[in-house]
Amino acid sequence: MKKLLVITCFLLGGMGFANAQQTSPVWPGCEDAEDVKKCFNQKLSQHVRENYEYPKNAAGEYVRGKVTISFQIDENGKVLVNSVEGAKPKVNQAAKEMILKIPEMEPGTLNGEPDARNFTVPFNF
To answer: Alpha carbon 86 to chain centroid distance?
Structure first.
């Protein structure tokens, strides 16, 4: 009987963990959107178009390149850059500056409590 009770506790505990309620961060202006994730992606794309500043080399030419940016929306809704990987340091720095301009937002939640969310996004500039 004790074994049955222990097994039942593990099953119920596992089901509770599997049913954890998780929400995505909410970008300003997406609060009333039907699909918050879709709105987040649209706002991120718009943010990139409006805030990325192409760096120039010594000859005054625009520097282009590929980067992969890993960032986090923390429990307070603020952006933290974890890493920027790319072959061109000027592009990496410009991409980092652009990500840091993301506005503060409503953080994601896990079971009703604020929770950090990590994102990794590739860009071609």
So the answer is: 19
